[in-house]
Amino acid sequence: MRRQIKYVFILAALIYSAVVAAQQPDHSGAGLLLQLKKSEEDTLRVNLLLQLSEHYFKKASGSKKDLDSALSYGYAAEQLSKNLNYPKGIGNSYEQLSKILHVQNNTARARQFADKAIAIFKAHGFFLELGYAYYDLSGYHSINKNDELTKRIRIVEELALPAFQKSGSKLKEADILKELGDLLQLIGNYTKALSVLHRSLQLYQSIKYPNLEGIYDLLGAVYSITGNNEQALKYGLLAVNAAASVHDTTIQLATIFNRIGSTYSHMKKYNAAYDYFQKALYIAKKYNNAETIVLLSSKISRTLIALNKPYEALKVLQEAQQKYPTQEIYSQLYLTASLLITYKELKQYHQAQKYCGQLLAISKKLDKYEPDQSEVQYPVTEFYLATHQYELARKHLAGTDTFYKAIQSPLELNHNHYLWFKLDSIQGNYLGAISHYQLYKLLSDSLLNETTSNHIEQLQIEFETEKKNQDIKMLENATRLQQNKIAQANQTRNWVIGVGILLLIIIGLQANNSWIRQQANKKLKVQQKEIEKKNLALQHLVTEKEWLIKEIHHRVKNNFHTVSGLLATQSAYLKTDEAIEAVSESHHRIQAMSLIHQKLYQSENLSAIYMPDYVYELADYLRDSFNIRKSVQFNLQIEPIELNLSHCVPLGLIMNEAITNSIKYAFPGNKHGTINISLKHKSEHNLLLTISDDGIGLRQSAATAVPQSMGMKLMYGLSEDIDGKFSISGYNGTAITLEFIYDPLPS
C-alpha cells in the first residue's frame, strides 16, 4: 500500500508539471526567440538562451527534435558564458546540459556536466544554484531500489538542504525538506519523515506561503501509513481546504481526495471512502489521465466489495478497462488484481482463473523483489483457497514467504502466516495450523503492540468450527471411525509438541534479546570512555590556550614597560621642556595601555577588563606620577562593568588624557581640588563616561568645534573609533563626557 501511495504521488506531480507547462502560451518560445534576436552578446543573452533551452526541454515529452533544440541552446549558452567569463552562466549551462543528457540516457556525460556545475557553484558561493544542482543530482538514483533510495536521501539531506539553507531562501528550504520527508517515508523511516515534514510546514507558514495543500497531503499520507488515522484525516481535510483557498483544481487534487478515501477505508468507513474516491476519479477524468483513473477505479471496486456490492464493483472495473486502456504495467497490475478479487467474490471462478493467469504473467515482468509484487500475492492465494486449489495455494504461499522476507515486510509476512493457518486448517494439518497461528499471534503483538480477546476468540471459533466439520465428515463415514480416533490422539500429541516447541522458541528469543542488550551495553561503555578521553583532551587544549593568551598579554605588558624604559632613558638626553613633556605624556599613554594587559593576564577572564579596578589603578598611577596626593583628591564612581579590549584601550587613553590635563592645568600653583571620574549605564546598552574637575576651567569657548592640542585630537579620534559622542565644557571647571553604545558581555 505504501508503494501505491508513492506512485500516485509521483504520477500526480508529473502530471501537474505537464499541465502547468501545457497552460503556458503557445507563442512563449517565439517570444523568447524574438528577444534573443534583439539582444546583445551579454549576460542577458545567456539567460535568454537558457530559458529557450528550458522551454524546449519542458515541451519535449520525449520528442527527439525538441530535446535536440534544448541541447543546442544549452551549448550556445555555455559558449557565450565562457566568452563573457560569466561563472554563473557557465554553471547554469552545465546544469541544463546535465538535465537534458540525463533524459536522453547519456548518463555518464550528464554526470560529468553535473559535477562541473557543482564545482563552479561551490567555488563562487552560488548557494541557491548549488542547491538546485544537488537536487538534480539526487535524481540520478532511483526510488524503486532501497540502496539507490538511501543514496538519494543522503544527497538531499547532506548536500542540497545545507546549500538552500545557506542561500537564505526559506521557500526553497521548505521545498527540499518536503522532498526529504517524502523520500524518508518511502524508505520506511516514518518518525523522521514526520519531523522533517513538520519543519517544512513551519517554514511555509513563517513566510505565509499560500499553497500548503501539498505538504498537508503528504503529512496525511504518512500518518495514514503509520496507522494514525485521526491525524491522517485532519491533514487530508486541511489539504482540501488549502487547495480550495487558492482555487487549485489541478490533478494534485485527485491525489488529495484519493488519500482521504484511503484513510476512511482504513477506518472501515467505506461510504465516506467511496465518496472521496469518486471525487478523485472526477478530477482524473477531467484531465483524462488513464493511469490515475485505473488506479482509482481499482480502489472504488474494492470499496464496493467491502460494502457488499460486487456487481457494481465489476461495472466500475469494466468501464475503466474499456474506456481507458493503458500499457503502463502498474496500472495493469492494479486493474487485473481488482478484477481477480471481484470475480472471486462473485464466485465466477472461470473468469477469475483467467485474471489469475494474467496477474501472474504481469508479476513475471516486474523485478523479483519489487515491492508492488505484494499486489499479486494476496489475491492469488485467496483465489486458490476459494477454488480448493490447495497445492497451488501452498506453493504460492511458500514463494510469498520468501518475497516478504526479502523486502523486509513483517506486516505482509504476518498476513501470510494467517493464510497458512487457514490452508492447514482446511487440509487438516492441525500442527501446522497451530504453528502458523502462534507465529501470526507473535508477529501481531510485535507489530501492533496489542491483541484483542475478540480477535483471538474469532480465530479459535474458526479453528474449532473447521475441526468439528472434519469430525462430522469422519463420523458420517462408519468405515473411517477408528482412523478418526487415532487422528484425534495424534492431534492431542501434536498440540503438546507444538506448545513445547513454541516455549523453546520464546526462551530462545528472550536469550537472544538479552545477549543483544549486553552487546549494546558494552558498546555504550566503550563509546563513553572515548567521549571522556576526548573531553579530557579538549580540556587540556582549553587550558593551554588560556595559558598562551595570558603569556601573550604578559609579554605585551613587558614590551610596553621596555618602551617606557626607553622613553625614560631618552628624556634624560633631551634639552627642551617641550620635548621632555611630550616624552612624559607618551610614557603615561603607554602605561595606560600596559595596565590593561597587566589586568588581563592577572585575571581569570581573558577577554574583558573589570573597569572599577582598572580606573582605580590608573588614577593611582597618575597621582603618584605627578606627586599630587596631598593637593588633588579623586572621586571615583565606577559601576561594576566589564569591557572588552577593543573598548577598553580607547577609554583608557581618553581617561589618561583627561586626568593628565586636569592635573596639569586645572589647579595652578598647587591649588587644592577634586577630579571626579564616573562610568555608568545611561540605559541598557548605553554607557556614559564623565571626567570633571573643579579647577579654573578652559580658556577657550566650549563651543569650539575643532580641538587644538594633540591630546584633544587624540580624545576626539578615539571617541570616533568606538562610535562615541564626545563633548567638553569649560565652565565652573572642566567636564568631559563620552556616551557610547556597548553590548554587555554575557555572564
Please tag this protein with its features.
disordered N terminus; 747 residues; 75% helix; single chain; mainly alpha; elongated; two-stranded antiparallel sheet; 28 helices; five-stranded mixed sheet
Describe this structure in words.
There is one protein chain. By secondary structure, the protein is mainly alpha-helical. 75% of the residues lie in helices and 6% in strands. The protein contains 28 helices and seven strands. A five-stranded mixed β-sheet has the order 2-4-5-7-6, with helices on one face. Strands 1-3 form a two-stranded antiparallel sheet. Helix 6 (107-124) packs antiparallel against helix 7 (127-138). The longest helix is centred in the last third of the chain and has 91 residues, at 481-571. The relative contact order is 0.03.
Short description:
With 747 residues, the protein is mainly alpha-helical.
Largest beta-sheet details:
5 strands, mixed
Low-confidence region ranges: 1-27, 450-469, 701-706
| Average residue pLDDT | 80
**Can you count the helices?**
28
Number of strands: 7
How far apart the termini lie comes to: 56 Å
Oligomer: single chain
Task: Give the C-alpha Rg.
Answer: 42 Å
Which structural category do the helix and sheet elements fall into? mainly alpha
- Tell me the fraction of residues in β-strands, as a range: 5-15%
Helix content: over 70%
Shape, per Cα inertia axes = elongated
Spatially, the strands of the biggest sheet line up as 2-4-5-7-6
Layout of helices and strands:
Elements: H1 2-22, H2 28-38, H3 43-60, H4 64-84, H5 87-103, H6 107-124, H7 127-138, H8 146-167, H9 170-187, H10 190-206, H11 213-225, H12 229-245, H13 252-266, H14 270-286, H15 290-306, H16 310-323, H17 329-345, H18 349-365, H19 374-386, H20 390-406, H21 410-426, H22 430-448, H23 453-476, H24 481-571, H25 577-602, E1 608-610, H26 611-626, E2 632-638, E3 642-644, H27 645-666, E4 673-681, E5 686-693, H28 710-721, E6 725-729, E7 735-741
Parallel strand pairs: 2-4
Antiparallel strand pairs: 1-3, 4-5, 5-7, 6-7
Helix pairs in contact: 1-13, 2-3, 3-4, 3-5, 4-5, 5-6, 6-7, 7-8, 8-9, 9-10, 10-11, 11-12, 11-13, 12-13, 13-14, 13-15, 14-15, 15-16, 15-17, 16-17, 17-18, 17-19, 18-19, 19-20, 19-21, 20-21, 21-22, 22-24, 24-25, 25-26, 25-27, 26-27, 27-28
